[in-house]
Amino acid sequence: MKKYLREIVITISVAMIVVMTMLRTPATETTFVRKNVVDLTPQEKLDFVNALKTLKTRPGTNSKNVSFYDEVVAIHAGAMTFDKMQLGGQVILPQDTPSTGPASGADAAHEHGAFLPWHREYLSRFEKALRSVNPKITIPYWDWTDPRAVEVIFDPNFLGTNGSGSTLTFEYSDGTPTIRLNGGPVVSGNFSEADGWGIVPDLHRNIGTAETLGTSLVRYLPGSDAPAGSGFPLDKAETDRILQSPDYATFRPFLEGEITINADGTENECRNSPCNHNLVHALVGGTVPNPNPNETNRRLLTLGTISNTPASPNEPAFFLLHANVDRLWAEWQNNGRQGGEFYAVPGTEPYGHNLNDKMWPWDGGDSIPGSIGSTDVQPYLPVIAPNDIVRPIDTLNWRKYGYTYDTLLKRGRGWRRQSRGEFPVKRTRVPERRRGSR
Ligand SMILES: [Cu+2]
Known about the structure:
Layout: H1 2-24, E1 32-34, H2 42-55, H3 68-79, E2 85-86, E3 91-92, H4 115-133, H5 149-153, E4 166-170, E5 179-185, E6 218-219, H6 236-242, H7 248-256, E7 259-261, E8 267-269, H8 276-285, E9 287-289, E10 300-302, H9 317-334, E11 371-372, E12 375-376, E13 403-405, H10 406-410, H11 432-436
Parallel strand pairs: 1-13
Antiparallel strand pairs: 2-3, 4-5, 5-6, 7-8, 9-10, 11-12
The structure holds copper (II) ion.
Copper (II) ion (CU) binds near residues 76, 109, 110 and 119.
């Protein structure tokens, strides 16, 4: 009898220890799921719009007294002042004051390896700010191959419709067919100036002239009758091929839109017509070849807010577009390519873009941005702590940030290695460094 009593006491004690240990173990942090924008409920859309608009009125820490949201825009603009040559040299940003420091000479956020790490960090910080308004929010993504997406995003009750009041005609002497674009300032809906979405003119400049685009969001969306390649949705087979890229040196420029790879493996540079991520920027904001062949510094004309890349986060659709870019990177990584060996080959990138480089603006103040035209970006930037350092290597695991994508949940969790269907790559393009050099 005594023996049984002792066993019961031991059993109860062990059970109590187990329970107490479980209570002391912190609950695993919630993973937020970024959803396809077409799957958002009306309430989720309302919450997202309200959070954006709250950040547009929240004070920042900059010396110009612009809002927290505007400060976020300034970070993106600032990153692009480290190299005045933009879009592969098709547009050259006028600049009175050049940048200084090790990051000088290359756009800190685009056209090089850190395009994906930089925007992953940038979006996650912005998403956390949105969640400080409403703890349920995640940034929805715009699957640009989804034929339903454009109508959902540019709905009058969500991000608002096309701009209006301006019809532009571009005629070419070299045989390029005449282009007509309809758009202009967005005058109604949640992101009209009248409804509180006023844009800081200094942070809303044309990338080719540095002239301001004004205080209203500007869109030149293609009509639903636009021919393939000039409208939405984008070609799904092409986006699927991006995910088949065998290495980061192919994947990053293919996704960003500097190159495209055909079904037979041949590779083309997207020189005169943008591709993939760049194409979405170009289509929403309006981008056409410059009809004046003498303007060799400006071979593309960028008309609206999101096609003038430094200013592009003034357009709320920017965040949906970049959530999709980040999702495609996460999917590519999730397919057995999670480590640093699936990033840019060491030493092949300009400073700020290699795996262990500090990325401006999270570089401890090592580099200072330049101006856009005569506009100094510095006073619009938030205060960033000197110990707030981020390197590409810190960004490779998106789950560490506490979010994932619905498409990854559907296909199972975890870093897993699958057989990778890869296409044959015929390398015909010039190396990345040569294209960026003057
Ligand atoms: Cu960007």
